[in-house]
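Q: Make up one entry.
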Amino acid sequence: MDILLLEALVPEAMKWLRERHTLELAPQLATDPRELRSLLYHARSVVLPRAVMVNRDLLDAAPLLEAIARLQLGTDNTDLEACRERSVRVIHPSTANVRSNAEYLLGCLLNLFRPGMAAALAGQVLGPVRQGRELHGSVVGILGLAPTAHALAPMLRALGMRVIGYDPAIHHTAPIWQRLEIEAVTLPDLMKWSHVVSLQMLFASRYKGFVNDKVLANCKMGQVWMGISRSSLFDAEALAAALQDGRIDVCQIDGCEADFVAPTSPLHGLGNLLVTPRLGSQTQEARLRASWYVAHRLHQTLEGQRVGIDSLMSRPLDPSSEPSSQWLGI
């Protein structure tokens, strides 16, 4: 078997792959580890959902495996070192979800600045009304220059917001700040001046607990937080304290590790902490881009081709056109 799919691509991409490779769609294997290992033994490549972890044990069951692909961004659920040792290529659509995540953050901001919106949509039309804020003239702090920030910043400026930013991995004199028209500031100044902080830092182990007591001590009172980064960037106790004493009015993040809001966590039960189930990448357009990206990367791998990782995503997408001519330039 060339391709084992535990998560479906868009129908057009699967049809395109079936014309070139043997393919089996078996989403039920995501919850059946024994049967998954049985089929993996014969698979040259596999597309996995986020919930399926890739570790040495799984790779040991797949001696023919050449590639592992996911439709979601992030490799925290994949043992990259074990994949390198076995020469297994890890494929994920690094830019397919940028626009959808940026729009998710913008939607968060609009809702969080109008605190009565969620209650009204939930049916509490006669509930107490809290005064909201206007985006125009407000200051937003961009914490982390992951690709989503590149799409989000112009959206915020178009609404009349002042956009400032900080990234621990990028010097404040780097040309990218000027190119994105984001005012580079120190981290204490970002915390002190921002009405809202948008967190989209790329995660690295050295940044675990990066948003801690020291950082949050400089919060502008009543600050709003939103983010799509891994929840382990937060120190849970520091965030809980800021949510409870009014430094942070409300925080909404897209997805979190299992222990982040567990009953033993200081964040458990806090009403002003909102966690959504990774909705940022869930748009039809993002799914279409991710599916075609994965389809062509799998095809190239199985055919022994080597193409730059960003070359496909730089091409415009017209689903009605022939994928091979559009994506591969042939």
In short: DSSP finds 13 helices and twelve strands in the chain.
